[in-house]
Amino acid sequence: MTIEVKVPQLPESVAEATVVNWHKAAGDAVKRDENLVDLETEKVVLEVPAPKDGILTEIRKNDGDTVEADEVLAVIDPDASAVQAKSGTQPQEKDATQAQERAAPKSEEKAAKTSGGPPPQTSPAVRKLLDEHDLDASDIQGTGKAGRVVKEDVLKYLEQQKQPEPAAGEAPKAPPPPSPAAGASGERSERREPMSRLRATVASRLKDAQNTAAMLTTFNDVNLQEVMDLRARYKEKFEEKHGARLGMMSFFAKASVEGLKRFPAVNAYIEGGDIVYHDYQDIGIAVASPRGLVVPVVRDTDRKSLAEIELEIAELGKKARDGKITMEELTGGTFTITNGGVFGSMLSTPILNPPQSAILGMHRIEKRPVAENDQVVIRPMMYLALTYDHRIVDGAEAVRFLVTIKEMLEDPARLLLQI
After folding, report:
1. Model confidence over 275-291: pLDDT tens digits?
2. How far, in Å, CA of 142 to CA of 117, rounded?
3. Active site includes 390?
4. CATH number of 197-417
5. Active-site entry in 70, 79, 322, 394
6. 39 - beta bridge partners?
7. Is the pLDDT of residue 324 over 60?
């Protein structure tokens, strides 16, 4: 009896997902709880595990397909696995070969006939490309794992086939030198790729924020000498005791908490004709991931120590980069901090993260001459930018909020004493 692999229940408010990457091909042996395919939603990538040991006999949704909850993605035959275990045969023999023959497209069947061995394992996207150009997968040198043929291998093979062969006895002609505007290959190529679901969602929400909110940005600069001295003095003991690096973000998060307490409108949002105020501070930290910008949330930031904040930021950042972040960890923030300084940004005007009413932009630290006690001294300075929704936050509140953060960071003892 076969088992259907279905799209899991999607997070609330997410209607559909996109198939982004199959880790198994039709005919492969799979084990229970082994990840079969990745599905991309608006915010996270979901892994779909195998419900049971068996042979993946059929793949019904290919890379790029849009799917909804409970749709069938693939079919597993657990009996094929049982027969193999009993007889001691390998996945490419007997039942597995039969399963592959039932499910594999013509390109892989042809490869099996010409090579005399089992068909090469390829993704649905690669098989589709092979079929479109009537190619034999065994003729293509695979660069993927275990020699697997990937999409780039097929495209390279097709490009090579376009180049004319030299006549008998004729030496190959040297290619003409590329023009100054051309690339390394001498061609001015273009590529068209569909936007990922995450990128499309981010684009839509940010544009909605521009169209809806009355955004305004106010600026200030901050002298980080005291914070940097504090970090230099205690970073080794801090890491030894807490197992976390003492970074800048925890100071900015705690300073923001104090500002949010003093100016509740910055920590609120508009819903219809009402203003919803939060009596807690859940701060989102913007993180660049391979899939795009995500904003994991550090909840109850006001109740956490610098060490707890640093540990949580490190954990959430790793999850985001590894694609393991969950929907729950990305929702519910009341205020956002984004740090363009790690990429070298000197100054920017960040866009609101709806429905929040404000976002703080950090920038690079740069030593600059400043006046202190009528003397010119060199200090590590950073420009700060606060973008806010002028419909709910007045200009005076925004400026004073940013001044509060400046005061807290220039005299970190205020964070401890809450003054």
Report:
1. 999 999 999 999 887 77
2. 16
3. yes
4. 3.30.559.10
5. 394
6. 19, 46
7. yes
